[in-house]
Design a protein that fits this description.
Layout (H helix, E strand, L loop, with lengths): L3 H5 L26 H10 L4 E7 L3 H9 L3 E12 L2 E11 L1
Antiparallel strand pairs: 1-3, 2-3
Length: 96
C-alpha cells in the first residue's frame, strides 16, 4: 500500500513502458580470473557491456584493462576518506 501523500507528491516512472530496461549487477572477480570466461559469462547472461573499476594508482591493472580492449569511461569515483586520503577509481568498459 502506498500512502496517497507519497503517491501524489512523487515522480513515478512506468518501467514497463520501455521495451528495454537497464539492470546493473555488480560481480567481483580477481585479477587472476580468466577474462575471456568473464566476457563469455556476462554475454551469456544478457549483458551488453563488461565494466570494471580500478583505483587510480593501480597501474598494472590499468595496463591490463587497456591492453585487453577496455576503454576508459567518463567520470571518476572520487571520495575523500579523510584529510590525508582520497580514493579515486576509474571505470573501464568493453562492449560485448
Amino acid at each position: 500500500t502506498i500512502p496517497n501523500g507519497n503517491l501524489s507528491n512523487t515522480h513515478i516512472t512506468n518501467a514497463s513502458a520501455f521495451e528495454k530496461r537497464r539492470v546493473d549487477i555488480t560481480v567481483g572477480i580477481s585479477y587472476e580470473s580468466d577474462m575471456e570466461k568473464a566476457k563469455e559469462t556476462a554475454k551469456a547472461l544478457g549483458a551488453d557491456y563488461l565494466r570494471l573499476f580500478v583505483v587510480d594508482e593501480n597501474l598494472p591493472a590499468i595496463c591490463l584493462y587497456e591492453n585487453g580492449g577496455f576503454s576508459r569511461t567518463q567520470g571518476i569515483y572520487h571520495k575523500v576518506l579523510d584529510e590525508t586520503c582520497t580514493l579515486r577509481e576509474y571505470g573501464y568498459e568493453l562492449e560485448l
